Amino acid sequence: MDRLIGFDPQLLHDAVLTGINIFILFFALSYLLFNPAREVLEKRRKKIADELAQAASDQTDAAAMKAEYEAKLKDVNKEAENILETARRKAKAREAEMLDEAKAEAARIIERANREIELEKKKALDDMKQEVVNIAALMAQKAVSGSIDVKIQDALIDETLKEMGEGTWQN
After folding, report:
1. Within its chain, how far is the Cα of 61 from the centroid?
2. DSSP type of residue 1
3. Among 135, 126, 134, residue whose Cα is nearest residue 157
4. 121-to-93, 116, 126, 161 alpha-carbon distances in Å
5. Terminal CA-CA length for the chain
6. Is the pLDDT reported for residue 3 higher than 60?
7. How does pLDDT run across 57-70, given as a tens digit for each residue?
8. CA atoms of 167 and 146, how far apart (whole Å)
9. Which of 40, 100, 107, 147 has the fewest C-beta atoms lying within 10 Å of its C-beta?
10. Is 12 in contact with 4 (CB distance < 8 Å)?
11. 4 — phi, psi (to 5°)?
């Protein structure tokens, strides 16, 4: 046999067999090793893609929850302000009511005191009238007991009036 480009047939045969063996080994190893590695890489790629999608979804949910929280917080602040305003109005109304009650109570106390003063004045006037009657009776008794003349009688009246005080007769 002639040599093809200076290669002997055994070398060509061995080279062809080696090439066929390499292709067989490549496909066999590809099936046994590369495919599982590709599957692992594909699973990892899908897992990362799912995690990124989940993170984006979580971020969207968090943004929605934040907006909802801020809206509720504003509502709570408005409600708290309304409650405080209502409490302030009630406190002012209660304050005015208490002032009115205090003024009315003070007026009742003053009225009662004025009545008591009037009663005390009347009692004092009655006592004074009683004293005047007693003095007049005493003077009458003295006048009757000692037939006294007009000068002595006038002197007794003047003396009695001085003892009682002139302010008593003028009221």
Report:
1. 33
2. -
3. 135
4. 42, 8, 8, 21
5. 175
6. no
7. 999 999 999 999 99
8. 30
9. 147
10. yes
11. -95, 120
> In this structure, which amino acid lies at residue 125?
L
SS3 state at 2: coil
Token output for 47 = 């897992």
Q: For residues 126 and 132, give the distance between their C-alpha atoms in angstroms, rounded to a whole number.
A: 10
Q: pLDDT: is 149 or 15 the higher one?
A: 15
3-state secondary structure of 171: coil
How far CA 94 is from CA of 63, 83, 112, in Å, comes to 46, 16, 26
pLDDT per residue as tens digits for the range 67-103: 999 999 999 999 999 999 999 999 999 999 999 999 9
pLDDT band at 168 (very low <50, low <70, confident <90, very high): low
Tokens standing for 40?
A: 């692992």
**H runs (alpha helix) in the chain:** 9-29, 35-145, 150-164, 166-170
Quick one: tokens of 111? 């009225």
Q: What is the pLDDT of residues 21-49, one digit of tens each?
A: 999 998 888 888 888 888 899 999 999 99
How many angstroms from the chain centroid is the CA of residue 77? 12
